[in-house]
Amino acid sequence: MSTAALTPNPTAAEAGAPARSGFDRAVMALLVLLALLWMLPLLWVLALSFKPNEFLMGRTGVFLGGPYTLENYTDILGTSMVFRWLANSAGVALAQTAGVLVLSSLAGYGFARTEFPGRKLVFVLVMFGLAIPSQTLFIPLHRMFAHAGLQNTFAGLVLPGLAGPFGVYLMTQYFRAIPAELEEAAMLDNASRLKTFLFVILPLTLPAQATLAIFTFLGAWNDYLWPLVIATKPEMYTLTRGLASTQTNFAQSEGLGFLMAQAVFAGLPVLTVYLFFQKYLVSAVAGTGRR
Amino acid sequence: MMNRSDTPPGHAAPRRRTGLAAAALALVSALALALAGCQRAGADAAAPGAASTAAASGPVEITLMRFFGSCDARYGTSTDATKAVGECGILTSLVNRFNAEHQGRIVVKTQTAEWGPYYDQLTARLVAQDVPAISVMHESLIGDYVRRKLIEPLDDGFREVGIDVDDFTDHARRGVTYDGRTWAMPFDTWSWLWHFNMGLMKKAGLVQADGSPVLPRSPAELLAQARQFKAATGKPYFTWAAANEQSANTRTLLTLVFQQGGRIFSDDGRHLDLHTPEVKRALDLMKQLYDEGHIKPGTDYPGANQAFLNGDAGVLIVGTWTIDQYMKEARSGDSALRAGYHVTPFPQLFEKPAAFADGHAWVLMKGGTPDPRSRRAALEVLKFFYDHDLDWARTGHLPTRRSIAESAEFRALPYRAGLATITRDGVSVPSVVPTQRAVEALIGEDVSNLLVNDKPREQVLSTIEKRVNAALRRAHR
Fold first, then answer.
1. CB within 8 A of B165, min separation 6: which ones?
2. Are the CB atoms for A154 and B42 separated by under 8 Å?
3. Contact residues on chain B for A255, CB-CB shorter than 8 A
4. Within an 8 Å CB–CB cutoff, is residue A232 touching chain B?
5. Please, is A114 exposed, middle or buried when counting C-beta atoms within 10 Å of its C-beta (0-12, 13-18, 19+)?
6. Which of A177, B99, B201, B440 has the least C-beta neighbours within 10 A?
7. Predicted confidence (pLDDT) per residue in A198-221, tens digit
């Protein structure tokens, strides 16, 4: 094959480029516009968080212009328990993420690559978990945990989140997509099933693991409903639960600036996670869509 | 013979399967152990929060569960309630002062929960036997907790620590009494008030010689004044949370019904009947006001407050808790209230003086004070609140002690002399009616549909009756 054959026709490329790039630019401009539109409420939240509560009782349609205050943030930081709640949230989110990764990987591998009696039935049961709204399980779950003495414990906060049918489904699909020949080759080299799983197959699922980790972490961090009932002592509150407990009775009217500052404060760690892992998150969302 | 290489994926040899299972078990066990460790740490950390009898020599710890928010940053060390502002500030200062005065003997540990899911969280705690010693409770809900045997009767305890139930105001006494026994220490009475923008009222020619607003004395007068106000100012007379909020519409409706001497619940609290002339008259008046544009349309709670503070309406109907804030706003140079602010009880539009009222009260939860020492300590906390009723009344809420309501100190507080009648005329839904929060929401939701979405009145009445009566039946099962 000649070199010329591999070189794109410069004339055609040049002729086609302006039309495509004009279209691309228009699409990009539209996307930027939509992104800004999407960000408006977030910017609004940020702007309101720097304004006095009394001022906001009468006017909420303000972006720029004074008065400004840091009082809402100092009030949050001055709450005696806030760093404890932050640590609790981090602990719960990390433990839940680790647990879900371990359990979902094992379960996913089991469903995708092993045969055992009732495998299909068990998988269908797990998939039912995706269809059942978690709220319907709320009362029996709380009674069960309360009966087991897990009220106001880290175990009580973490354990329900470990049952993640989404994670099992995601990992099962991912394991199924990996060619069986890789596994067979490893076994031909006398690798045990565990070795094959840990050192050959599992590393190939890192993108899926990252996806699952990010979704699980964000879900656990933002969870409010379960900590509301299982953590009833301030020492055991997570950040979402703790910050909510500091709100006055008519916070949406009388403490709006404080409310907005709480939203920003609680969102910062999540934003940090996003900034560090955005590559994985974007590919995760795209990958999940394709699958 | 089949060797390892013959084993296809999916047909692992038993030994490998066992190895994998063992690894999985090891991982899960490690996780469980880690959690168990955390659990112990959590339990250890949580232990001090419980109402405990502690060591006989140490201070008794009393857990106090409440809403009203948390304000450690501003009032974490304050012990002077007279210098504090707002419900949270005053209550935090009071508890700090109690702890300072009882150092070494009793320590009150506050456990704050947000107002919205407060009772859900209390229920969750009771289910888990994580019972607080003292809990704040709306008087309208006390009946539910008595029937479920979840709170302690307090008559003997009150005598023991010197709380005089005969000093309770009429409304407070009714609010904490069930089947002839006292079940709570009433902390305040709050009611439905009319807050006035006096600048707009003056513009409309609705101000008396003494500077107070001209109040309507009948529905006809109200409509006439509202029309006069609109013609003069171009603005609606009223703003209240007519949309996306259930309580405001219910409380206004109940006030108008109570003022006609009407009743909507049967004596035993098991049945709701809204097909009465009093209810129809009240709803027709509300609907006419809305349709003629005398109520700012489509506002929720913050929207109604904003409308009032921006001078978009003459009268805001809302509770006692906003008085301090509006007085502060009226002192501000650029406020729409700078020309004057006034507040009165809901004016008498029908035959009887009456206004919907409820109250906050303190209850002792059953099982929260397991021994005489902690029970005595909890009663001392209630006595402390009883003694500081005036401090709490600075929030705008009304006192629950007759002696305080009639005192010069209370009447010297702005507008309070005019509001004190509520401690006598305030009317609540009878305590035999269960699940009153749900009932309030169900009524308010459909009254909102009448006003905002033009749902026909007869349909509204039937829908409310059907839904509320079903809720009452469920509650009585």
1. B155, B158, B173, B182
2. yes
3. 69
4. yes
5. middle
6. A177
7. 999 999 998 889 889 988 998 999
